[in-house]
């Protein structure tokens, strides 16, 4: 994935005042843990005005009428995740407002980072660790282990 393309999207989200948090492999990279990934995963606030700002941001980066298919009725309703694949070399995006009942935009701890003068919102290492541990994907389990070691995160106690 081209890092400059990711940063263009994040700059557009900031310019359009989208309430978002970067998660996934890109977030690990922002925390200093090198990880290859093929997409940009973002949580957004589940509010129709925020979804409209998201479309505005994406239109600022891509000349793609399919952006208008990203609608609040989906993201704020029964289908809280959409995959957007932009034309050309832009990063595919997974856009979420919740993951089941366990993770919502409101309960994600986040940090603001300055990346070469560009402010971005990134899930904290502890949040990423909670999201990735115990999943069935081996790459998530590896990510959780790396986060635990790098940030001295204790394993979750059994429930």
Question: What's the topology here?
Answer:
Elements: H1 3-15, E1 20-23, H2 24-30, E2 40-44, H3 48-61, H4 72-75, E3 81-84, E4 93-96, E5 98-99, E6 103-104, E7 110-115, E8 118-123, H5 125-132, H6 138-151
Parallel strand pairs: 2-4
Antiparallel strand pairs: 1-2, 3-4, 5-6, 7-8
Short description:
This protein has 159 residues and is an alpha+beta fold. Helices cover 38% and strands 21% of the residues. A hairpin with an 8-residue loop joins strand 3 and strand 4.
**Number of continuous helical runs:** 6
Cα gyration radius (Å): 15 Å
Strand content: 15-25%
Distance between the termini: 38 Å
Q: Spans of 5+ residues with little confidence (pLDDT < 50)?
A: none
Largest sheet: 4 strands, mixed
The order of strands across the largest sheet is 1-2-4-3
General description of the model:
- The mean pLDDT is 93.
- Helix 5 (125-132) runs antiparallel to helix 6 (138-151).
- Strand 5 (98-99) and strand 6 form a beta hairpin.
- This protein has a single domain, classed as Beta Polymerase, domain 2, CATH 3.30.460.40.
- The protein has helices spanning 3-15, 24-30, 48-61, 72-75, 125-132, 138-151; strands at 20-23, 40-44, 81-84, 93-96, 98-99, 103-104, 110-115, 118-123.
- The protein has six helices and eight strands.
- The strands form three sheets. The protein has a four-stranded mixed β-sheet.
- With 159 residues, the chain is of the alpha+beta class.
Can you give keywords for this protein?
alpha+beta; four-stranded mixed beta sheet; 159 residues; 38% helix; globular; single chain; Beta Polymerase, domain 2
């Amino acid at each position: 994935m081209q890092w400059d393309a990711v940063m263009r999207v994040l700059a557009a989200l900031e310019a359009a005042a989208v309430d978002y948090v970067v998660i996934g492999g890109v977030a690990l990279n922002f925390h200093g843990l090198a990880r290859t990934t093929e997409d940009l995963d973002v949580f957004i606030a589940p509010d129709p005005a925020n979804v409209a700002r998201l479309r505005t941001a994406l239109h600022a980066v891509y000349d793609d009428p399919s952006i208008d298919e990203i609608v609040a009725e989906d993201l704020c309703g029964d289908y809280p995740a959409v995959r957007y694949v932009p034309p050309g070399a832009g990063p595919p995006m997974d856009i979420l407002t919740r993951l089941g009942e366990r993770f919502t935009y409101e309960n994600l701890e986040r940090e603001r980072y300055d990346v070469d003068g560009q402010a971005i919102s990134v899930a904290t290492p502890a949040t990423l660790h909670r999201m990735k541990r115990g999943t069935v994907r081996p790459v998530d389990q590896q990510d959780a282990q790396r986060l635990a070691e790098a940030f001295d995160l204790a394993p979750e106690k059994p429930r």
